[in-house]
Amino acid sequence: MFKKYLLVFLTSMIPLIELRGAVPIGLSNLLGDSLPIIQLYIICIIGNMLPVPFIFFFARKVLEWGADKKFIGKFFTFCLEKGEKGGKKLQETAGRGLYFALFLFVGIPLPGTGAWTGTLAASFLDMDFKKSVIAIMSGVILAGIIMGLASAGVFGAIGAVFA
Hints:
Blueprint: H1 2-11, H2 18-27, H3 37-49, H4 52-66, H5 73-94, H6 98-107, H7 115-124, H8 129-151, H9 154-162
Helix pairs in contact: 1-2, 1-3, 2-3, 2-8, 3-8, 4-5, 4-7, 5-6, 5-7, 6-7, 6-8, 7-8
């Protein structure tokens, strides 16, 4: 059982996969029985939020440093462009509700959104750290709820009723 907790925790820390991939793994029968839902969410949220301060304060500097390096330059440039694009899009659409937009950006589980991209965008926009962390954590919780419902087949059942 410890292996599954560790797998879920580490998966929720991986960029682009994050909690969106960890919740279905935790609810599956992969590596034994599914994990208890409350413990699963706590592990996923902690794992997903752990990198946030490091991303906010250091990722931008590291990405700018590595953008012109031979082997890592293309990937680092991609990450910089993704963060800048996400930040600009967030700022354009949000206006004064920037933190609410950050919450929705992180909370709606679509490819390319999540805590990593949201935190990088907040860093690029020089948003307040504490308010950003609250918005990002709220978004991670929302994404976990949505993924849990999707993994349980709730959305499929609703679609079957209304189809």
